[in-house]
Design goal:
By secondary structure, this protein is mainly alpha-helical. It has a domain of 40 residues. Strands 1-2 form a two-stranded antiparallel sheet. A hairpin with a 4-residue loop joins strand 1 and strand 2. The N and C termini lie far apart (39 Å).
Length: 89
């Protein structure tokens, strides 16, 4: 049996960088998400702004190694997804 301190509530985890708030998506986010994904201008901007993904990845890697002391991280993506491959580099 796990002790009470080792149980993680993933619904309440939230990380913040200078520009981002990283948290689990909630049901009440879905309408806004749908509108964002359906807006062509916004999608064109997001397509060029993979710096958000890089910022998020750097933060999460730093957190994993320095805060929760992981010794390894594994990641995978479709090899044709060049944007994701850039994040791994």
């Amino acid at each position: 049996m796990k002790n009470k301190e080792s149980v993680i509530n993933y619904n309440e985890i939230k990380f913040e960088t200078e520009r981002l708030i990283i948290r689990r998506i909630k049901k009440e986010d879905l309408q806004d998400y749908y509108e964002i994904m359906g807006d062509e201008l916004t999608m064109n901007f997001l397509g060029r702004a993979n710096t958000y993904a890089i910022e998020c990845a750097k933060y999460m890697v730093d957190y994993a190694f320095n805060e929760i002391k992981l010794n390894r991280i594994e990641a995978d993506c479709v090899k044709e997804n060049e944007a994701s491959l850039k994040i791994f580099k």
